[in-house]
Design goal:
By secondary structure, the chain is mostly helical. It is 65% helix and 0% strand. The protein has 8 helices and no strands. It has helices at 8-18, 28-35, 37-57, 60-80, 85-95, 100-106, 109-112, 124-127. The chain is globular and about 45 Å long. The termini are far apart.
């Protein structure tokens, strides 16, 4: 295993993935994965908000620290969904060399904004959060 900072994302992702099915009493990641989707997504929302607040404050060290927290929790989310950082890197590689406007124009409307199932209604019950969140 390399100690290169170039591969730190892969090493952290591997560590996160190794915690899947681990003891929630002994591992923060195992605990978060055990709690499930809602807890993971809530944590990402918190970290995204903290990253934005750090950026608004303009404190470079705080921006870096909060971005690291956000990236870490995003790795937990990817693991939860059976994905890895390599999937995201492959998508970035696919987009490399395209202008942002060109890449956005190539997206299909269904890829940009998933549609609700035909049977779903726009009632509050249909959009309410899951129980226990």
């Amino acid at each position: 295993m390399s100690n290169s900072s170039d591969d730190i994302l892969g090493r952290v992702a591997d560590t996160v993935a190794s915690r899947r099915g681990g003891d929630p009493e002994r591992s923060y990641v195992a605990r978060l994965l055990h709690k499930g989707e809602d807890a993971i997504l809530k944590k990402i929302g918190e970290e995204a908000t903290e990253t934005i607040m750090a950026a608004k404050d303009g404190d470079r060290a705080h921006i870096v620290a909060e971005t690291a927290d956000l990236w870490f929790h995003t790795l937990v989310m990817l693991t939860h969904y059976g994905l890895s950082h390599a999937d995201v890197l492959a998508e970035l590689a696919r987009r490399e060399g395209l202008s942002g406007l060109e890449e956005k124009a190539r997206r299909t409307p269904s890829a940009a904004a998933p549609k609700a199932p035909e049977s779903a209604s726009a009632t509050p019950a249909a959009i309410a959060p899951k129980e226990g969140s």
